[in-house]
Amino acid sequence: TSCAQRAWPHVTARVCSPRRASLAHLPNVRSSAATSLPGFENLTMGYNKYLRPYFGGEPVQIAMSLDIASISSISESDMDYTATIYLRQRWTDPRLVFHGNKSFTLDARLVELLWVPDTYIVESKRSFLHDVTVGNRLIRLFSNGTILYALRITTTVACNMDLSKYPMDTQTCRLQLESWGYDENDVMFTWLRGNDSVHGIEKLRLSQYTVERYYTLVSKSQQETGSYPRLILQFELRRNVLYFILETYVPSTLLVMLSWVSFWITLDSVPARTCIGVTTVLSMTTLMIGSRSSLSKTNCFIKAIDVYLGICFSFIFGALVEYAVAHYSSSQKCAAKTPQEGSANELTKEMEEVSITDILNSSIASYKRKISFTSIEISSDNVNCSDLTMKTHEKIKFVLRNKMHRIISYFTIQNPSNVDHYSKLLFPLFFMLVNVFYWAYYLYF
């Protein structure tokens, strides 16, 4: 066991290990490297992988670039996406400078002997490095001490989604890279070429989405242990609504139109109209259940597709209720024909009695005025006051009854066949207006 001690500015590092973690003590590496690279022996002098470059001094500048190989799945129920990326990191380590102007690709297993950044993916649920046939890592060393470190990673990252406009929604997802242990005093993250640091995302072909745009950001994560550098790739995904139009919107619209067929069937065809109404209601219910099954974990959202299916269900149920109202009014009208004739005769008699009473009252009043001028008193036996009071109550009762009949007749359907006639026009008209407001709101607001 050997111990190596080296004095650094502001720090003294002591490392004890069975074998020094340097490139010089790898079997057959020193001799071959020394003959092929002038000055390669500089790499063997006290390199310590546990200390970052410029330890105790300025922070290490780490430039990153990304290649998006694929986005295999985007889950609305779990609110995440799974992507395979090629992450490339570049930084300069002055301890690895050698003479010449060449670059050399080293065995990926040498990464265990070098200092590398502790970059991790923020909001990652599951991630792994590919290792077929060997670990998919790349180490390339340049003469000025620059190191290129590339990884192939598959990761599942959380993506907060707003599904209120589903399936006409646009989702914004992020891929965030951050240093786990080194704060901004130790490392600084930058994009290598700005937005051009990301490739492959514009060529993606997704089943339900289209990539609208993407851009890169440089940010900081303020935490209790310090301020850490963070790089953000933000991209917008617009859902392809054509599938849902063919799968849900068109069938639900056709079911609404099918419910209107009952308006052209006579009121006497009870089995036909009832069958159409019940069948369309059950079919619409099945369609609504099927649309919810694919998003079983997101039912807390009132989605745009739920609103449309609710509208269609309301119109279909309204067509069934319309027939019930029309048929009930028709049966009531037929049953009320005979009693209405008898009540009409009674009303005529009451009108005659009221007219006679009015005439008698006016005659008595004029007679009393005449005899008052001649000082002739009218005996109370000549006029029956109780009869006059009784006739007055009957008159008030008749007036109130007449008003009630008028109010009831105002809300009574006089001709039930007109219900179907007006429904043929009003139902399609209102359905078209609701569709105009629906599509205008969810597409442009």
From TrEMBL:
Name the gene behind this protein: Gabrp_0
Q: Which GO terms describe its cellular component?
A: apical plasma membrane; chloride channel complex; synaptic membrane
Its family remark reads:
Belongs to the ligand-gated ion channel (TC 1.A.9) family. Gamma-aminobutyric acid receptor (TC 1.A.9.5) subfamily. GABRP sub-subfamily.
Query: What name does the UniProt record give this protein?
Result: Gamma-aminobutyric acid receptor subunit pi
Q: Name one Pfam family in it.
A: Neur_chan_memb
- Domain of life the protein comes from: Eukaryota
The record places domain Neurotransmitter-gated ion-channel transmembrane at 248-343
Species of origin: Casuarius casuarius (Southern cassowary)
Which subcellular locations apply to this protein? Apical cell membrane; Synaptic cell membrane
* Residue ranges occupied by any Neurotransmitter-gated ion-channel ligand-binding domain in the UniProt entry: 41-240
Assembly information from the UniProt record: Heteropentamer, formed by a combination of alpha (GABRA1-6), beta (GABRB1-3), gamma (GABRG1-3), delta (GABRD), epsilon (GABRE), rho (GABRR1-3), pi (GABRP) and theta (GABRQ) chains, each subunit exhibiting distinct physiological and pharmacological properties.
